[in-house]
Amino acid sequence: MDNKKSNHEIDVNKRDFFRKTAALSVTALAGTSLLSSNARADDPAIMHHVPWGQKWGDPVTKNRYGVPSAYEHNVTRRNTKLLASGNYRASIAVTPIHESMGIITPNGLFFSRSHGGVAHVDPNMYRLMIHGLVEKPIVLTLEQLKKYPSVTRTHFIECPANGGQEWRGPQFNSVQFAKGFMSSAEWTGVYIKTILEDLGLKPEARWMLAEGSDNSEMGRTVPVEKVLDDAMIVWGQNGEALRPEQGYPVRLLLPGWEGNLCVKWLKRLEFATEPWYCKEETSKYTALKPGGKAIQHFYANEVNSTVTSPSPEIPWTNLKEGDIVEIEGLAWSGMGTITGVDISFDGGNSYVPASLKGLVLPKSWTRWSYMYTIPKDFQVNGKQIILASRAMDDAGYIQPTIDEETAIMGVESVYHRNAVETWEVTATGEVNHVQLRS
Amino acid sequence: MFNLDRKLIISASVAAAVAVFTGCMSGSSAEPKGAAVTADGKPTIDGGVYYPVVDGKTGPYYVNPQVAIDAKKIYNGRAPTPNELKAWDKDLMPDGTGYPEGSGSVEEGEALYEAQCVMCHGDFGSGGGGYPALSKGNGYELKKTLKNNRYRNADGDGPTRVIGSYWPKVSTLWWYIQDGMPHPMSKTLTIDETYALTAYMLNINEIEYEGEVIDEEFVLDREKMMKIVLPNNDGFIPNIDGPTGPDDVRAFYADPNNFGAKKVNPAERCMKDCLEPTAKVTYIAGAGIAEFLPPMATERSLPKTEESNGGPKKAYEESCMMCHADASMGAPAVGDAKAWASVTAKGMDAVYHNGINGINGMPPKGGADLSDADFKSVVDYMISQSK
Which tens digit of pLDDT belongs to each residue from A33-85? Predict the structure, then answer.
């Protein structure tokens, strides 16, 4: 092997390799056995030393806090002008769920939504005030807050407007934008009920105000029942401090409930008998129904799922008839634990069960999988494949069809759309976001 | 004070009841199942399941039983001082709780609006630049549009959701203006200014006070605000107010038909012929929304150029262009040599000073988070583009 071969020569060899391989493929199709042939071109990625194999790598002193490979730069949050105030302060950047693996979103890819920009809180100046209908009101520093015994839980957080742009028809030919207003992480913090054991909640308390310290002073009202169940104050995200986009140093986490309720940069909890009417629980985050009334306090994100592989972003254009491929997706429910996912190849008219895989946790992303043999021209019964998934949870819910959901909710609700999502595969393996509706 | 021991006992008994009911509570290795009722024996408030602590676990998670006992003794903070409470406890509730003493007129509100709000929210609250409209006319008339639903009437008019037609409570308006506005420099309005801006919002939405439409002479204060009922006050379900509030919410989410959800016995779920015969494949109209930033790509390659902070052009586009792109906002437009000549005639020191500290409707540094030096380079860039 020539160790001094230049990159240019390697490139030339690569071209030869692909040319020869392509020629051989044609030959193979013509009936010549490829297996018996010694004429297959040698892969320069194997035949030559690679640059990183012969030079020193970085010293361990570089990147004291690690960063992804530069080659992964396309795996990134994305935004669109149509979902933003003029300067991206009251806006959202969404997660590339077509690239997600397992049930955890890396902290740098966790979807980011703010109402007045991402605040940068000095942890030394951080204070949490808990007052109102408690026996012992309290001010805590970050250090004091963290002295409460911690719990660690894996939960998704979903913006209730995930999919909300598509009530009237499909708009995004992208699973990142159609379903990526959500992410999932392992959170560490304290149950608020544990703190309230200490402070003493007065029995007449029915509601809690949670308020952020950011530019918009984001506030929401939470029923005490959730507070005494699984509501958490969290400071840890996937084993490290929360990212600023997630409310560093402290946010509220209401497992399964609207992301907007999980107030970031949390500064104050107040308990009262009557609810507040915060801006984001009246003007927004309310779902208008056909009769003209809107649902307020729409807490839990209902059972939902989508295919994530294939996707418009990573289609099946490199596959052909007879290839075996794993279809993968995510399922999640803010009302409980996923109990099953069905998959459809005809847009949700008929289903077969898919398999759940990995950990199946309450109010968490859950992976599902189905092994599939690619049919000719990506067609079944003479029609292009339209993939759909339909999840169920242990609360007894199942995803409705679009017709079933819009019959009750109309198409002006914006929030909480959880009807079955559908993805058409074209004759060349491209994937298009479509809807099946009357 | 809520009693921990009682709750633990109830949790255990509920879990036992669930176990008997479902008959599926096997050995101690099984994870506790979600229950349809909480420790109080009531359905959950959100329609979901509840995971009681059974055999030291909630769902799949182990819990440390010492925590529930020792939490009562942890208190390691301090009580807030009266002044600290006053500084942070500034929320408003619809019954008048938290309404401060003060007043402001529609006329004063309009002047404030023109100086500090119009650049984002447009003339008379008409919206623009991605920022929400605040008014589209008479709130009482526009409330009727909330019944417009483009369900099977795709070409019809949709609902108009602005302050006058949609917001239920005036307290929300005052509170949010005080806490969150103006967007680039929130919490800078005085109480009187907030009353004035609230009054102006009521005026442009043609809201009534004691049967009369709020006109330009109107002065809003604490007592008057308590009497104002917005047109869509009764537009929201379920009820959340009063002693029955939480139970009303609970009853609402007990019925999936109220919120577009669907329950089914898994064994009876539809496996074929599940769609309406009329259901057709609907495609994205045109290209749909396809302007993604950065553009969609999945290849593994080295980035073409290292990401930098983007320099003054990027900062201009992010923080200045909204008002300086053209003359409509009253700010000198980039590209307008004459407008900038009269600005720079004051001398560059004055230009920098005014920009850094804010002038007229412009917040300090245009609301951008830039060092003085970086901000000056943005000013230089804007002037260089205006010669």
Answer: 445 556 789 999 999 999 999 999 999 999 999 999 999 999 999 999 888 77
For residues B21 and B57, membership in a common domain is answered with yes
Q: B317 — alpha (psi -120 to 50), left (phi > 0) or beta?
A: alpha
Q: What is the pLDDT of residue B253?
A: 98
List the one residue out of A373, A424, A368 whose CA is nearest residue A393.
A368
- Using alpha carbons only, give the angle B155, B160, B166 rounded to the nearest 5 degrees: 150
What radius of gyration do chain A's Cα atoms show? 26
Structure tokens at B257: 């038909």
Q: Please give the single-letter amino acid code of residue A288.
A: L
Q: How far apart are CA A172 and CA A178, in angstroms?
A: 6
Residue appearing with tokens 């409930």: A257
As a whole number, mean pLDDT of residues B187-210 equals 98
CA atoms within 13 A on the CB side of A229: 27
CA atoms within 13 A on the CB side of B247: 6
Q: Are residues B192 and B117 in the same domain?
A: yes
- Name the pLDDT band for B287 (thresholds 50, 70, 90): confident
Q: Which residues of chain A have pLDDT under 70?
A: 1-38, 86
CA atoms of B336 and B387, how far apart (whole Å): 7
Answer yes or no: do B58 and B111 share one domain.
no
- SS3 for A365-376 is CEEEEEEEECCH
Are residues B38 and B17 part of one domain?
A: yes
Helix (H) or strand (E) holding A44, with range, is helix A44-47
φ and ψ of B106, to 5 deg:
-55, -45
Alpha carbon distance A346, A286 (integer Å): 33
Residue A156 host element (H or E)? strand A151-158
Decide if A229 and B50 are in contact by the 8 Å CB cutoff. yes
Would you state the pLDDT for residue A29?
47
Which is nearest to A325 in space by CA: A177, A431, A173?
A431
**Percentage of residues in chain A with pLDDT exceeding 70?**
91
pLDDT tens-place string over residues B153-172: 889 999 999 999 999 999 99
Chain A residues close to B52, C-beta within 8 Å: none
Query: How many domains would you assign to chain B?
Result: 3
Residues 6+ positions from B286 with CB-CB distance below 8 Å: none
CATH number at residue B355: 1.10.760.10
Whole-number pLDDT of residue B24: 41
pLDDT at residue B306, as a whole number: 53
**Of residues B116 and B382, more confidently modeled:** B116
Question: Hey, which residues 330-359 in chain B have their CB within 8 Å of chain A?
Answer: none
Assess whether B56 and B114 both reside in one domain: no
| The two structure tokens encoding residue A270 | 């107040």
Q: How far is B153 from chain A (nearest CA, A)?
A: 10
Task: Say what the pLDDT of residue A166 is.
Answer: 97
Strands (E), A292-364: 294-295, 304-309, 324-332, 338-344, 352-353, 355-357
Specify the pLDDT at position A14: 54
The vertex-A171 CA angle with A166 and A174, nearest 5°, equals: 105
Q: What is the pLDDT of residues B18-29, one digit of tens each?
A: 433 443 444 444
| DSSP category for residue A293 | -
Shared-domain flag, residues B36 and B115? no
Give the pLDDT score at A262.
98
A338 membership: H or E segment, kind and range = strand A338-344
Of B210, B227, B244, the domain-final residue? B227
B36 or A155, greater pLDDT: A155
B275 vs chain A: nearest CA distance in angstroms?
5
Structure tokens at A353: 């069960």
Q: Do B73 and A339 touch (CB under 8 A)?
A: no
Rounded to two decimals, the pTM is 0.86
Contacts of A398 in chain B (CB under 8 A): 262-264, 266, 269
